[in-house]
Amino acid sequence: MAYHILLLASLGIWLSNASPATISKRAALDDCLKTASVPTLASGSADYTQSLKPFNLRVTFKPAAYAVPATVKHVQDAVACGAKNSVQVTAKSGGHSYGSHGLGGEDGHLIVDMRNFASVTVDQTAQTAVIGTGGRLGDVATALYSQGKQAISHGTCPGVGVGGLSLHGGYGLISRLKGLTLDNILSADVVLANSTLVTASPTQNADLFWALRGAGAAFGIVTNFKFRTFTAPESNIVFNYYFSPSSATALATALTALQDFTRNSQPPELNMRLFLSGFTTFSGVYYGTRADYDKLMNPLLSKMGISSGSVSTNTWLNTLTSFSNGPLKQVTPYDTHENFFAKSLMPEYLSPAAITALSNYWSANARSNSRSWYLLFDCHGGKGSAISNVSADATAYAHRNATFKMQFYDRIYNGNYDSSWFGFLNGWIKAISDASPGVNFGMYINYADTSLTKDEAHSHYWLGNYEKLTKLKAVWDPTKVFEGPQLVGS
Ligand SMILES: Cc1cc2nc3c(=O)[nH]c(=O)nc-3n(C[C@H](O)[C@H](O)[C@H](O)COP(=O)(O)OP(=O)(O)OC[C@H]3O[C@@H](n4cnc5c(N)ncnc54)[C@H](O)[C@@H]3O)c2cc1C
Ligand SMILES: *[C@@H]1O[C@H](CO)[C@@H](O)[C@H](O)[C@H]1NC(C)=O
Ligand SMILES: *[C@@H]1O[C@H](CO)[C@@H](O)[C@H](O)[C@H]1NC(C)=O
Ligand SMILES: *[C@@H]1O[C@H](CO)[C@@H](O)[C@H](O)[C@H]1NC(C)=O
Questions:
Q1: Taking burial as the number of CB atoms within 10 A of a residue's CB, which of 279, 371, 418, 440 is the most buried?
Q2: Keyword Signal on this protein (predicted)?
């Protein structure tokens, strides 16, 4: 009884800010899904409430309906129901978008949750794997390994979904050697806006295949990918050094040395990152011998002013665990969340003036910030990176030449992140941009920045590829079924 009153009460609140037209549209959408037997979560059920909790609790949305398809036919029918009722359709895989784009990025979407598309099937002879988009990275890595010790290049956080990661980038601890996750996609099965199922590959629907690899969310719902796999390397050097720059000058010196090394001397076998926060670390993995590692790293460490840390040798799965924020195996329901604001920069080159501005801002504003902030520099590109080895217009991912993948992150552990704190990270990027006249820095949609306008998002996320993407959007999704505030064509 109490349950029903609660349910009616929350329904009342919801209906009270929806117009009569919206209400009838929702009723028609629900009818359509029901008629097609598409499984949905009932508004107010425990699963529904849990499913609306995104990774970033700061950014929540209320969908028009929530589908949990079990078959490709269900996905097709869900897309048809959305299109027919003019409700925008959004695929959700791991729900880790920083702007909660997997919940639409705004209210009123039909969510198509891909949780039932999570299988991993390896062809050990061909070294390929068919992987459902709803799988989470930790489970996928474990499943690949259990089938002939196979692996793919992917991100570090085990809860991230295959769908969002692979369609927009996918950078991790073997990317300089093996490329981004999206560089290893051989083909994708996609439900289009008109609910047709097609395969996209270099030989089938090649222009769609191009768009999917960097801007996928705006072009369809991918049910599964076929990836190229490799045999996991089993003896990897994992390192983690501590670094405490004493001044802005010391930080600038370290960043200058690191940038120069990454651009010119960092080999594909070396993957690493500088994690600047209250407690700064410099860590990574080397796929090679200890002697070669020492020869490469010792001069760099000394230039950066780094002297203490640990170096160990790890198997593949332990290497992944060393950089994950918990065990690889994921629990259902997924329930890890943070409350934060984040931004990114993908610089090809930070000028001395930009490095000075960045370092001065750190000294003046970041060091005194008692929230849990960080600035991560992933050593992404340069002459020795498989990512930069691909031209910027070969796929929709436009950041091939970025030396660093920089992520600015500010969070709190209790309560809600307040919008009055946005200025801290916005100011940091502004300081770097002001010191870099004439540079249009790339930004990474997988680190979606909710403070960008749609025009800013289009320009920074896709740089020179955006115009081509808008043309392809008109071909593959002319009625804009797959929309979101920052997606192509919004
Ligand atoms: C803790 C954490 C760690 C991270 N670490 C890394 C990292 O190491 N490397 C890295 O590159 N990134 C990393 N990311 C960023 C991550 O890649 C993105 O947030 C990614 O978009 C998440 O994908 P998802 O499927 O979990 O998210 P969702 O929110 O479900 O989806 C993200 C976007 O992709 C779309 N999408 C999802 N599935 C499909 C599909 N099947 N078909 C079409 N569109 C789809 C959604 O509509 C949405 O627009 C990290 C994020 C977090 C929160
Ligand atoms: C870059 O591409 C060339 C040609 O395909 C290849 O020989 C080389 O190994 C690649 N380098 C990296 C770092 O992937
Ligand atoms: C990337 O770098 C290469 C080599 O430095 C350069 O030729 C190319 O123009 C750059 N591409 C972009 C898109 O900046
Ligand atoms: C669906 O859309 C695609 C891309 O626009 C088009 O090629 C195809 O003919 C359409 N199919 C149907 C059945 O309309």
A1: 371
A2: yes
Residues 345 and 429: beta-carbon distance below 8 Å: yes
**Shortest-distance atom of ligand 3 to CA 393:** 13
Residues 6+ apart with CB under 8 A from 138: 158, 159, 320, 324, 327, 328, 329, 330
Total count of residues recorded for the chain? 490
Pocket, ligand 3, Cβ cutoff 6 A:
392, 401
Judge contact between 238 and 322, C-beta under 8 A: yes
From CA 275, how far away is CA 278, in angstroms rounded? 10
Indicate the residue type of 425.
L
The alpha carbons of the chain give a radius of gyration, in whole angstroms, of 23
- Residue whose CA is at the smallest distance from ligand 3 atom 8: 401
**Cα–ligand 1 centroid distance for 251 (angstroms):** 31
**Which one of 195, 196, 212, 480 would you pick to mutate in the ligand 4 pocket, going by the greatest count of ligand atoms within 8 A of its CB?**
196
Classify 471 in phi/psi space as left (phi over 0), alpha (psi -120 to 50) or beta.
alpha
What distance in Å separates the CA atoms of residue 462 and residue 476, rounded to the nearest whole number?
18
Domains of the chain: 2-113 (3.30.43.10), 120-231 (3.30.465.10)
The encoded tokens of residue 336 equal 């890890």
**For residue range 98-137, what is the model confidence (pLDDT) as tens digits?**
999 999 999 999 999 999 999 999 999 999 999 999 999 9
Which is nearest to 467 in space by CA: 441, 490, 489?
Answer: 489
pTM, 2 dp: 0.95
